[in-house]
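User: Predict Bifunctional uridylyltransferase/uridylyl-removing enzyme's structure from this.
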Amino acid sequence: MADARKAALRAREEPRPPARSEAPSADGVRATLGEKIAAVSRTAKPGEPRAAVVEILRSALAESHEIARAYLESGGKGLVCARYLSDLEDEIIGAIYDYVVRFVYVADNPTFGERLTIVAVGGYGRGTLAPGSDIDLLFLLPYKQTPWGESVVEAILYMLWDLRQKVGHASRSVAECLRQARADVTIRTTILEARFILGNVELFHELLNSFDREIMRVDARDFVAAKLAERDQRVSRAGTSRYLVEPNVKEGKGGLRDLHTLFWIAKYVYRVREPEELVAAGLFTRSELTLFQRCEEFLWRVRCQLHFSTGRAEERLSFDLQPMLAAKFGYHDRAGLSRTERFMKHYFLVAKDVGDLTAIVCAALEAREAKPPAMLDRVLGRLRRRSRKMPSDDFIVEHDRVNVAAEDVFRRDPVNIIRLFWTADRYGLAIHPDAVRAITRSLRLIDSDLRASKEANRLFLDILLSHNTTETVLRRMNETGVLGRFIPEFGRIVAMMQFNMYHHYTVDEHLLRAVGALAALESGRGPKQAALANDILPTISNRKTLYLGLLLHDIAKGRKEDHSQAGAEIAHSLCPRLGFDPGETDTVAWLVQHHLLMSSIAQSRDLSDRRTIENFAAIVQTMERLKMLLVLTMCDIDAVGPGVLDAWKAQLLNVLYWETEVVLGGGHSAADRKSRVAHAKEELRAALADWSDTDFAAYAQRHYSAYWLKADLSRKIRHARLLRDLSDTKTPLVTTVDLDTKSGAVELTVVAQDHRRLLSIIAGACAASGANIVDAHIFTTADGLALDTIFFSRAFPLDDDELRRARRVAEYIEKALRGEIAISEAVAARSAQRGATTAFDIAPGVVIDNSFANMATVIEVSGLDRVGLLFDLTNAISNLNLNIGSAHIVTFGERAVDAFYVTDLTGGKIVSPSRQAAIKRQLLDVFALRARKAPGGGAGAAPT
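Assistant:
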């Protein structure tokens, strides 16, 4: 029943394929090519046959690839396509070999030493090739290379290279293969997948028999450990989560390489040659083997289509390719999800299944003592190793994994489904695959009665509030399907991706990581940027409202209505079931409804404006809510992706918290504005020990309070030394560059006389010189200097290369500010050079509001980011005769959200409705005009 339900779930995501054409076959290609090559070789002039032969082979390859592509795009199977391409390669290599030994290096009577065997290894050895795959060959020799054999191998390789194929090759004797296999696990894996193509078959069998006898029988445990360590390193490079929204189909977690690793280990330990033998070996059930085959088929279809669509060996399922593949696979918009999101949901469900199969294999290996045991938390596991008494006789411990004591454990008491995960968390144990199998067969028991059970809800809340392994256990609950059944609203967002560049993970993975971020913060393992959140977390009176608010904050994603409002309604429904009283329920619902508020205001509003703080405080109302919202916001941003919670975002959130604390406290605070400004000055004074008191006092007067609160100490030190060196300059203009290790971006500081086109010129110069702006800190000194720091993304991995590039960008900005460059023309040229980006379609919007600030009108502009967007916007604002007092540059992936605090030339707000309408029209025209000239155009103020 569980298998039927899983199949039904995938059927809802997988479209019905079109009627596909007949499966292609490579049979007879070698013979046909042989006839054509022989005809050419007999009639061609000396020196000409080789070029003609290569052309014959090239035409055959191109024609066959088109056959494979047509078959795949008509709904054909990915594995059939991959096997056809592998069979085709066998035929091509056979035809080349026949040509070489018949017409080029003829040996009428080859000696024993001139025996040659051509063996396919790697992916080619498995009998599957993607269109852009490497061709890995082993030329197997009796004992050493002979001149004839060397010439034949060289001729074959040169012809393959002439066909523009990527060939990996080695020439070794059987003894050399064995010697290298003992020393290198990669060579061992290569031989494990060796497949005979042509030549002397006895030599091939000698290799396999010797390898089995001398190596495979003696070091299975070492091989398993090495392959699992290799897998860990690989997924670490490709992304440690299988739910990354731009997954690597081959190398990523949950991808094809994970399936390959499972089979390599199974072949080595269980002595099988084909996946079908895994059932007889007892590793997989029949349904698990079917799942293995289904996953392999889907991933191969995606991979082959990626290669065909891009014309290269592309393994990353990037945003620009996802819509194209979704269309080719026949997906359609449905149930609040675009066809791209439905396609990717199917992909992530398959990746989850690959993870389940990995767990099954690892547990089986532990049972055979072929790998070290697994635990949810190894520290907890060591501490609790001595305590083996389970809280219930329904559970036992096998190989450091919690298992069910009998097959009817869940049927007798469905609460045991939740209790199993509670037990795993309490004892720091992984869950045995047999228990997982029992759970998947019992998912139907998670019904309305179990959801209403006080004990089940108590156990779930214990897991959520645990100080042990909350995130890991919740993720296991999710992967087994329990979490989505126990909280049906959560089930709707399982494997759901958000088609944008901002979020790195699927919605369910993001929520689990957010809970994990809170647990890390509470245990003192949170990021240093979240120090304030860490300090106030112990003062929050009700931690369960905070944990549940985080788990639910995005639970309504993918619905037509606003997900924050819909999520609050879900909270109102769920909280009483979990035992929350009305006040706690209201708090959770409030957190979900306003979970974006603090981040939005901190990053896009002027925090030195009293009106901003008062408006925010009116929504928050209490100190307890303010504390919880700060912590929730920090954890939410941290869970978006690595490095997203940087020092600047954290500092803005801290400032908003402190400023609001003053208002909510009736004007009194433990750290009010004046004392915080004074503390910031004292901190800088201590760092500038070589300054006199007089010099420092004069310098301190140059900055407004907003500067002291927003800039961090390291930048204050650099700014102080920079401005002191400029004190005697009448027309100051200086740029400095540095590498910001916190955000991984390049930091460029510009000091110049302030004027209303300054920001526009800087933004334009960055765009024209190829600097991808990711953030901007804008300050003005009391004596009329602009102190602007622009952050742009790196282009080179080496620091020296990046610093040279950054200095060129800085020089370009200086030339632009001196009027030596026509910025508009330079930006237009760069935009045209970058070309179009069509993966995303975001409708632009402009909001003009006079209630956000006391002294300025706030213009908030949002739309698709691209090259030169910030320049175009600021240039348009300047052309409207508006002064930009401050700018707040934020980009959420491909969506730019920029807020400008502006006044008219008299210093007043923009109050005329007709004037506001004109401003809105011209700013919207910025998007429309550039779209006509260079659609999409790439990225301007790139992601933060």
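Residues 457 and 579 are 8 Å apart (CA to CA).
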